[in-house]
Specification:
This is F-box domain-containing protein. The protein has about 450 residues and is α/β, with parallel strands linked by helices. It is built from twelve helices and 20 strands.
């Protein structure tokens, strides 16, 4: 009797689980599978009879060619998917393919068999997102030249290791995002057309592009809001631009003709490269003075060069700068008031403290920190301060906190992200409580 009862219970539970799956609306099942890699979507076909062929109607393909037994098997699967997806598309998707993502790692070097007609098929299927990655070390002649210049529905184009065909004309009325990395292009005209003739382009990434006799590319766009550039020379004319992100290795990758008057500039120095060309500093500082309201300097090595330039020339004044996100080493902390003095309208300041790089087993005493002056921004504009990665046992950081609390007249919030042991944190909090505050409205958060 008990055995029958348990069997009945198991059958009931199984039936309930099956009903929950089978009762899901078809468009909801398709949407769930849309966010999975195609291999995982295919594996759901064993869940129930209703799911057996559902993956075929999902408006997305997400595949890595190296996961197949050979390249021909990969090509065959894609061909069959495009055909079956068109034929078995649901009323919800209406035959539209929203995403096509593929990573081509062709071990046989047979890219000549890559069916470029896929691009035409994707265009007919009103594709929204194309994301193609080719193994970047393949010679250019083994990579097919892609012609992705005409599509009424394409919103997001991401190419890595690809090669572009020559563009006679461009018609991409919905394209908002272009991401090109290690891409080979035939000439400057092709790339400039792709950018300038995309009428709603908002986000552009150009990393390590190459062509014969490259001289740089004009980035002209009336709609562009964000650009990231690395190892590629551009001249920027984008009146609505809000953010420039760049990484310095040897020189400056960009020249600004026209950008939004309150743009954000995010600069980093390439990891392990502390000997970039210092002559670019004046040019970058001029850009900051003219165009930048929000500045992020992700490398602490840049500050010393700014200070050296300031000492050898006129005092810097970033009059429009209202947000500063910076990284300082312990040895550079004493120059902080000088930097803040250059920002008379600063409202938000985020500082990350990092340890000085030193040779293995080399121990140095922490430099003594003295804050002798009070910058104008502390008295008139600074409202929010965030200090990140405070270093346990470093005397300079509590001096910095006291300095900010004592001299910031309109400070509204001070946020401290500490990486302390419980005992060190208790000692730090005691010091913090005893510190005088100039702003009675200041809220202090310790995380």
């Amino acid at each position: 009797m008990g055995r029958k009862k348990r069997a009945k219970t198991c059958d009931t539970l199984s039936h309930v689980k099956e009903d929950r799956i089978s009762q899901l609306p078809e468009h909801l099942i398709s949407e769930i599978l849309f966010h999975l890699p195609t291999k995982e979507a295919v594996s759901t076909s064993v869940l129930s009879s209703k799911w057996r062929n559902t993956w075929r109607s999902v408006p997305a393909l997400d595949l890595y060619s190296a996961k197949f037994s050979n390249f021909d098997a990969f090509l065959s699967f894609v061909e069959r998917f495009l055909d079956s997806n068109r034929e078995e598309s649901t009323a919800h998707s209406s035959g539209q393919l929203r995403k096509f993502w593929s990573n081509f790692h062709d071990l046989d070097g047979r890219f000549k068999d890559f069916p470029t007609r896929w691009v035409d098929a994707l265009t007919r299927r009103r594709i929204q997102q194309i994301d193609l990655t080719f193994f970047i070390f393949y010679p250019a002649h083994k990579v097919p030249a892609l012609n992705i210049y005409t599509c009424k529905t394409l919103v997001h184009l991401r190419l890595r290791g690809a090669k572009l065909a020559n563009a006679e004309s461009v018609s991409l009325p919905c394209l908002k995002i272009i991401y090109l990395e290690y891409v080979k292009y035939p000439n400057e005209s092709t790339l400039e057309k792709l950018i300038s003739e995309s009428p709603v382009l908002e986000d552009l990434t150009l990393v390590s592009l190459s062509t014969a006799n490259a001289t740089g590319v004009q980035v002209c766009s009336k709609t562009l809001k964000r650009i990231r550039i690395h190892k590629f020379q551009v001249v920027i004319d984008a009146p609505l631009l809000e953010c420039i992100r760049t990484e310095i290795e040897s020189g400056k990758d960009f020249e600004i003709i026209n950008v939004g008057s309150f743009a954000k500039l995010d600069i980093d120095v390439a990891l392990g490269n502390a000997t970039y060309n210092i002559s670019i500093v004046p040019d970058i500082l001029t850009d900051i003075c003219r165009w930048v309201r929000d500045l992020v300097l992700s490398s602490n090595v840049f500050w010393k060069d700014i200070l050296l330039y300031s000492n050898s020339g006129p005092v810097l004044h970033f009059r429009d700068l209202s947000r500063l996100d910076a990284k300082f080493s312990k040895s550079d902390l004493e120059m902080l008031p000088t930097i803040l003095e250059s920002c008379p309208r600063l409202e938000y300041f985020r500082l990350e403290l990092v340890k000085d790089k030193s040779k293995r087993r080399e121990r140095k005493k922490d430099p003594k920190v003295m804050f002798a002056t009070v910058p104008q921004c502390l008295e008139t504009s600074l409202k929010f301060v965030e200090l990140k990665r405070l270093i346990p046992g470093y005397e300079g950081e509590i001096k910095l906190v006291r300095y900010l609390l004592k001299n910031s007249k309109i400070l509204e919030k001070l946020r401290l992200d500490v990486y302390y042991t419980q005992k060190k944190k208790c000692d730090f909090l005691k010091e913090l409580v005893s510190s005088p505050r100039c702003s009675t409205a200041c809220e202090v958060l310790v995380l």
